């Protein structure tokens, strides 16, 4: 049996054997899972070949690199099933607009299909709880019911509450924190215009101040009219939107120490610019991660200083710094911008408007 790396190289070469033996087999396994959940085969244009073809196009457009970015602990088969999940969810969004709707509870259940994905899901919930205004009982309710699978009656005994109160509180917590988080950051497109226009998502997210899971930075649009910006502004101001980079440009985004690049600019960095799941600090592909979620401004400064030193040592690169720390991390521009004071006079560091 071929190794995962050999399989990816086979895909990259367009080897029909690897496509028949592995690509379609993995996609078929994924389709079977989601067909049972969503009855895909009964829906218009959601047949197996259509979705597998869509997935293949996305991977080919990215030279199969998304398959190389998986965690070492996750098999290629599991990783591809997870990737196929996003294709399915994007297709279902299109189907919802055309023919009907899907429930978000169905969407959450897609994280239960393998132990690897369940661990990723649990980690995401932990991070949501870490940064949401929850008291001790709220956290215990989420942990026991959502992560550990206890029933409301069992939780009620532990917390000296009535089962009805626990159920109502759990429902409110899920609607208030968990469901909006996953709707916003994971029910996303895979850069496939036939499913959803990426610019619409990017611009809508930016309009809401870029509150994202691992970064608060805005992203990018190609149609910006740079002819109306002075040479100095071009050099010293990070564009409001970034979806493409020049070969020497580096996308600098806010992250968390776990390196869970789940949404917003971090998701774009992961999908487009080489950010690596599980790596929360430093250069990765054409991106550079600065952790912002671990505490106060003083905990961010060492990572900013490390970034500035790195940029000074790599004058052949241009670093486009986004508004790190100014979304879900809860900081303001006035708090974060001073951390980059030394960067203002470094030619190859480009800062957001107002930071220079």
Highlighted features:
356 residues, mainly alpha, 5-stranded mixed beta sheet, 15 helices
Termini, distance in Å? 55 Å
| Mean pLDDT value | 75
Give the number of helices.
Answer: 15
Question: Rg from C-alpha positions?
Answer: 22 Å
Total strand segments: 5
Q: Give the low-confidence spans.
A: 186-234
Overall structural class, as computed from helix and strand content, comes to mainly alpha
Q: What share of residues is helical?
A: 40-55%
The general outline is: flat
- Name the helix and strand elements from N-terminus to C-terminus, one letter apiece: HHHHHHHHHHHHEHEEHEHE
How much of the sequence lies in strands comes to: 5-15%
Sheet with the most strands: spatial strand order: 2-3-1-4-5
Major pleated sheet: 5 strands, mixed
Notes on the protein architecture:
This protein is mostly helical. The chain is built from 15 helices and 5 strands. The termini are far apart. A hairpin with a 2-residue loop joins strand 2 and strand 3. Helix 9 crosses helix 10. The chain has a 5-stranded mixed beta sheet, with helices on both faces.
